[in-house]
């Protein structure tokens, strides 16, 4: 809230809370865990007093306490607080992970979708070298990677249900209110040193998504730094892998992209 005036904060809080409520109502029925795993809700301590970070841990059904398991940390949803709040939560999460005996810290990967993909990329470059864990790969689905590009300039030749310009401005104002921070590597992965990312990076780009041009440019930047980059291109709109919107859902695109992630994890981890 420090970077917003009081009334800016109230306005943004009301709008975003309403959007989250609507999203929760319409997506909740789809939150059915796979029968092939067991999940447990945990509360990770935050650096902020009396605050915790909620997280779900998914265990294989045959898990025993004697096993050390590889770990994929996935970010779901958009950040609750402006920069650098989300990155600080990621740092607190990494610190908690390193204190747990059940994880194989030599086999860790990060992933995320949309704003979660942005955070996965930022965490993989900005925090990776501060911890003992070996973050081998990062998987980012249709992330925004450059906040410095005005929303009006984010276009694709054949857009499919593009995010409205007004909504993009809202997200940018809420998350990165200071214009000078929009080229910071902590907000925009495009401005991080390419060699700071893990060796393996997978970027999923949707044909009708306005973020696709910057994703393609980001992938080329990583390739020039000899990162093992796989830009997976799927047909559809931003979020077309999600069943929550039947008009945009593309099962074949989801299955193709997810199978690529599984194959990569099996090889790398």
UniProtKB/TrEMBL annotation:
Domain Alpha/beta hydrolase fold-3 residue range list: 72-237
Pfam family, one: Abhydrolase_3
Taxonomy, superkingdom: Eukaryota
Record flagged with keyword Zinc-finger: no
An example molecular function term from Gene Ontology annotations: hydrolase activity
Keyword list, A-Z: Hydrolase
Entry-linked SUPFAM superfamilies: alpha/beta-Hydrolases
PANTHER family membership: AB HYDROLASE SUPERFAMILY PROTEIN C4A8.06C, ALPHA_BETA HYDROLASE FOLD-3 DOMAIN-CONTAINING PROTEIN-RELATED
Protein name: Alpha/beta hydrolase fold-3 domain-containing protein
Organism field: Fusarium oxysporum f. sp. melonis 26406
Highest classification ranks of the organism: Eukaryota, Fungi, Dikarya, Ascomycota, Pezizomycotina
């Amino acid at each position: 809230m420090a970077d917003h005036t009081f009334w800016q904060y109230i306005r943004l809080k009301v709008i975003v809370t309403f959007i989250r409520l609507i999203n929760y109502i319409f997506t909740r029925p789809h939150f059915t865990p796979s029968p092939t795993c067991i999940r447990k809700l945990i509360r990770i301590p935050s650096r902020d007093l009396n605050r915790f970070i909620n997280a779900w841990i998914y265990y294989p059904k045959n898990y025993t306490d004697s096993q050390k398991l590889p770990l994929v940390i996935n970010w779901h949803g958009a950040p609750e607080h402006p920069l650098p709040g989300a990155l600080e939560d990621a740092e607190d999460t990494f610190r908690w992970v390193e204190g747990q005996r059940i994880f194989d810290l030599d086999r860790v990967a990060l992933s995320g979708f949309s704003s979660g993909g942005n955070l996965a990329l930022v965490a993989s470059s900005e925090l990776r070298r501060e911890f003992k864990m070996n973050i081998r790969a990062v998987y980012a689905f249709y992330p925004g990677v450059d906040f410095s590009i005005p929303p009006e300039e984010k276009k694709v030749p054949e857009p499919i249900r593009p995010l409205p310009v007004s909504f993009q401005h809202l997200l940018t104002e809420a998350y990165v209110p200071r214009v000078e921070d929009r080229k910071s590597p902590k907000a925009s992965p495009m401005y991080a040193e390419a060699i700071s990312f893990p060796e393996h990076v997978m970027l999923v780009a949707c044909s009708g998504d306005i973020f696709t041009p910057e994703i393609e440019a980001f992938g080329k930047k990583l390739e020039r730094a000899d990162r093992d980059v796989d830009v997976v291109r799927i047909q559809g709109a931003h979020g077309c892998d999600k069943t929550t919107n039947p008009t945009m859902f593309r099962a074949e695109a989801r299955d193709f992209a997810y199978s690529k992630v599984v194959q990569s994890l099996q090889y790398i981890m």
